[in-house]
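Let's practice the habit of predicting before peeking. Look at the sequence and jot down your guess about where helices and strands might fall. Then scroll down.
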Amino acid sequence: MQKGEVALGKAVLLGILSLAFAQDKPAYVLYSGQGKRISYKKAIGLLAQADVILFGELHDDPIAHWLAYELVKDLQAKRPLALGMEMFETDQQEALNRYLRREITLDRLGEEVRLWPNFSTDYAPLVELAQEKGMAIYATNTPRMLAREVARRGIADIESWDESKRRLIAPWPFPRLDSLPSYQKMTEMAEGHGMNPENFRLAQMLKDATMAYRIQQAWRPGQLLFHLNGSYHSDYKEGIAAYLRLYAPHLRVVNVSTQRAPLPQQYKPPREGLADVILVVPETMTRTH
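Done guessing? Here is the structure:
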């Protein structure tokens, strides 16, 4: 067979395989940060080398919730692992600890603290896994009441807080990172809701700084800390990741970003640096709320 025929044969085979894959309907596809499709095993290998994993989910996506569960289950079998969760606020830590110590049930936890509306379907399985495996869970988010106050009134509001409130957030004053693209994009969002853009950005920075500070406090040498948060809090290594570079520059931070696409198997990252691992799900995937 001539070289030209071999090349043609390879091209035809690749075309057939591509067509077959295009006709498939995967529920998700994983990519490296460079946009190369990777296996679940390869993703586990990348994530297992980190000190901190920022798992950026879409809060209403069931595949992201399922994958987070599977990753935690498999990673904790390899290394000591603790969880951090945006879904729990810092003033809820004691109630969460009581659940993990089996002093209260999950239903009772829901009576004592305000849980997210999709908690029972999307986050309860992970919390139950942590209890079963003896993993710590750290409540990392700023209490929503405090973040709401800052979004309305800005710096003056934080400066009026007493020590009981200050203990629930990152040490004040924390660094301002307004120039980061993710925070700059909030100007239009804030104006669309009739809010002061600077105050709106400050409230977001308050959340990210507090989550990063709590992660830094929680992490122990040799441990893997798996933090679950919305993708916007860690995409492009901004948000929480940016504050972690300030609070704990020695930590190796790896991020995951969840993205929607019409055809996950043909996904291309919008630009370089989105995440170390990219989880792509179909746009038509069922939403949980």
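How did you do? The CA atoms of residues 28 and 70 lie 14 Å apart.
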